[in-house]
Each structure stands twice: as structure tokens, then as C-alpha cells.
Write a structure and sequence with these properties.
32% of the residues lie in helices and 16% in strands. It is an alpha/beta fold. The strands form two sheets. The protein has a seven-stranded parallel beta sheet with strand order 8-7-6-9-10-11-12, with helices on both faces. α1 runs parallel beside α10. The protein is globular, with a radius of gyration of 21 Å. The two termini are 23 Å apart. The model has no long low-confidence stretch (mean pLDDT 97). This is D-3-phosphoglycerate dehydrogenase. Keywords: NAD, Oxidoreductase. GO terms for molecular function: phosphoglycerate dehydrogenase activity.
């Protein structure tokens, strides 16, 4: 196969090997900025894209492009509808990281509930008494509100149920569940002790948690977001945390990534910050690399992909 695919430098070796074994040439890019693509990859037939934004305007300079394969499950960094009009597939890797993201979600809930990171940091500074005034709380008996009941949301709900948490679920597209109870958005906000977000970003879910939603939550409640930054009005959340309208938050995604060091979130002691690590395991990275590479090979072999988010006639 005489085809060329642009890949991120961080792509796991299993993905690179699959492409090479199928006769595809690869071009490794340090970033997917317009300048980098035009300089090194303007003749590519496919792209494997991580979290970099993909600019619509660049498409007119990529005459051979047939597929943008997302290395992950979210696709808010690429305009799949626009690319559909250009005959370009957009795909995702939905089965590659659901377990990992669910595990990291539970890990951050554990961390937040027990103040583990904060206490460990204070210990390194010689403050052995910080723990005495920063007691955690048990998860058993608490209510976890899961917003978005797709692959990840289901796994989070199952794990929380095993921890003896009460699980409530908001998802307008779901009519039944084997774990927990389906509720309205208003009930989710008012009843949950912890709310965790696992929705795709759409017009309906953009700023799903805004100033109104935050005021509807318990003052003792916590927010967890390992989904997408756009699900939360970040400035409204900062104000809510500053004013203790909610007790705390755990955030892995932000409006701008990396999160600028000047951001007010760094000044708050009631927020756990991690740099988009929800899929940061060897296992998940290997699966996402391989699955995205398989989608590229399928499309460049004139087959339909397995996990498209648009439709090419």
C-alpha cells in the first residue's frame, strides 16, 4: 500500500508497527499545528490525531486526506460534519480506554474523599499535623451522580455500586439501567454528594455545569470532570470553589490545555488538578494506538471503518 499517514510522536509502538506492517509510510509530527502539517505532511492520506485541535482551513491544503482517526473517544477537537462534506472519515477508539478512564475516575474520587494528595504534599513540607484538620469522608453510603451513561459512565457506576455507594444517573438517551437509578438533571444536581461527568460535548451539554447548576448542588458536594473541559463553565466553577458553594472538585480537563500556571485554579486548596491523565496507562495507550491505526488501514484499503462518527457515501 503506497500511502502515508501523519502520526503524533507519542504514538505507541504497537500502532506504528501495525501501520508499517500494512505497507504504510509514517510521518511523525511534534504537533498538529497548521505550520507543522504544511511543512511535513501536506501529502498524507490519513492522520492519527490525539488532543490537538484540527483546523478546518487546513483541509484545502491536504488533497489526499481520507481519514482523521481520533486516538481516543472524544472528538470535539475535530469538525466531523465539515470533514464529512469533504469526503473525509472521522473515527474514534471507543473500546480502548473505557476501563482506564473509569478506574482513574474512581481513583480521583478516592483521592478527593481522603485528601491523599494534599496530605502527602504537606508531609513533604514537614507539616505532619495538616491531616488533623483535613479529615476525609467515607464513600460507602454517599450518593454518586453519573452524568452520561455511555461506556465509561456505565463502568464508573458499576465500580461505585461495588463500593456501596448509592448511584443515580442522568442521561436523556437512556431508558433503563441495571445499576443505580435514572433521574432528571435537577435531581442529579440536588441529590448527589459527588457528580462525575462522562458526556460528549454537544450544544446541549456545553457548560452542562454552569453557575445555575453549581448553585443547585449541595454545599457539601464535589464535582469530578474527566470528560471534557467544555462540560463545565470554568470561571463559574472557580467562583463557586472560592465562595465554598460546593466543597471541592477534581479536574483532569480544562478550557485550555496545558492549564496556564496563571490560572486561579492553582490558588485553590479545594481542587485536585491532574493534566489530562484519564487514559494515561500503557494498556490504554497501546489499545488506542492500535485501534486508530486499524481504522486508518481499513479506510485506506477502501473499506468502511468500524467506529466512524460521520458517514461518507
Amino acid at each position: 500500500m503506497n500511502k502515508t499517514v501523519a502520526i503524533p510522536k507519542g504514538l505507541a509502538e504497537v500502532g506504528k508497527k501495525y501501520l508499517k506492517d500494512n505497507g504504510i509510510n509514517i510521518v511523525e509530527l511534534a504537533s498538529f499545528s497548521d505550520d507543522e502539517i504544511l511543512k511535513k505532511a501536506k501529502d498524507v492520506d490519513g492522520i492519527i490525531l490525539m488532543t490537538d485541535p484540527f483546523n478546518n482551513a487546513i483541509v484545502q491544503h491536504l488533497p489526499n486526506l481520507k481519514i482523521v482517526a481520533r486516538h481516543g473517544v472524544g472528538y470535539d477537537n475535530v469538525d466531523y460534519s465539515f470533514l464529512e462534506t469533504k469526503g473525509i472519515w472521522v473515527t474514534i477508539t471507543p473500546n480502548a480506554n473505557a476501563d482506564t478512564v473509569a478506574e482513574v475516575t474512581i481513583a480521583e474520587i478516592f483521592d478527593m474523599s481522603k485528601n491523599i494528595t494534599a496530605i502527602a504534599e504537606k508531609m513533604r513540607l514537614g507539616d505532619f499535623n495538616y491531616k488533623n484538620n483535613h479529615l476525609g469522608f467515607d464513600l460507602a453510603g454517599k450518593t454518586l451522580g453519573v452524568a452520561g451513561y455511555g461506556r465509561i459512565g456505565k463502568k464508573v457506576a458499576q465500580k461505585a455500586d461495588a463500593l456501596d455507594m448509592k448511584v443515580i444517573i442522568y442521561d436523556p438517551f437512556v431508558t433503563q439501567t441495571t445499576v443505580g437509578t435514572l433521574v432528571s438533571k435537577d435531581e442529579l444536581l440536588s441529590d448527589a454528594d459527588i457528580i462525575t461527568l462522562h458526556m460528549a460535548v454537544t450544544d446541549d451539554t456545553n457548560n452542562f455545569i454552569d453557575s445555575v447548576a453549581l448553585k443547585s448542588m449541595k454545599t457539601s458536594s464535589y464535582l469530578v470532570n474527566l470528560g471534557r473541559g467544555a462540560l463545565v463553565d470554568q470561571e463559574a466553577l472557580i467562583n463557586s470553589l472560592k465562595n465554598h458553594e460546593i466543597s471541592g472538585a477534581a479536574l483532569d480537563v480544562f478550557d485550555q490545555e496545558p492549564l496556564p500556571l496563571t490560572n486561579d485554579l492553582y490558588t485553590l486548596d479545594n481542587v485536585l488538578l491532574t493534566p489530562h491523565i484519564a487514559s494515561n496507562t500503557v494498556n490504554a495507550m497501546n489499545r488506542m494506538a492500535l485501534d486508530s491505526a486499524k481504522e486508518v488501514v481499513k479506510v485506506l484499503s477502501n473499506e468502511n471503518p468500524t467506529w466512524p462518527v460521520n458517514r461518507i457515501n
